[in-house]
Design goal:
This protein has 7 helices and no strands. The protein is mostly helical.
Length: 119
């Protein structure tokens, strides 16, 4: 704990890139490591949440043909404009994190960018 914190504060340890990142940069590629799972960076998760919300609004007693049809209807009912908004939102979060903003700063920035009067 303490040793790891001390080493992390040293400049040469802090600025050291991983071996994978160094190899990719040496070949001319850009490398950006994202979290393993982060729903704000994945438009598919936003779409899935939209569909689950619609499906939950259907009255269900048992899983039969009616509820199965409701599931398929919920998956097909997301408008294309909404999907585009999800993709734009995810790209705004990626851009904010790429610029080094914290989670709170990124959320504020994305909210401002998607508003009527943007900054």
């Amino acid at each position: 704990c303490c040793l790891a914190r001390i080493l992390a504060n040293y400049k040469n340890f802090f600025e050291q890139k991983s071996a994978l990142k160094e190899k990719l940069l040496a070949r001319g590629y850009k490398c950006l490591f994202l979290l393993k799972f982060y729903c704000k960076l994945n438009p598919i998760e936003m779409y899935w949440a939209y569909c689950k919300n619609l499906y939950r609004q259907v009255w269900k007693t048992t899983f039969n043909d009616v509820t199965r049809q409701a599931a398929f209807k919920a998956l097909d009912s997301c408008p294309l404009d909404t999907l585009r908004r999800y993709i734009n939102r995810a790209s705004r979060f990626m851009d904010a994190y790429r610029k080094g903003l914290s989670v709170k700063q990124a959320a504020w920035c994305v909210k401002k960018q998607s508003g009527y009067r943007t900054i």
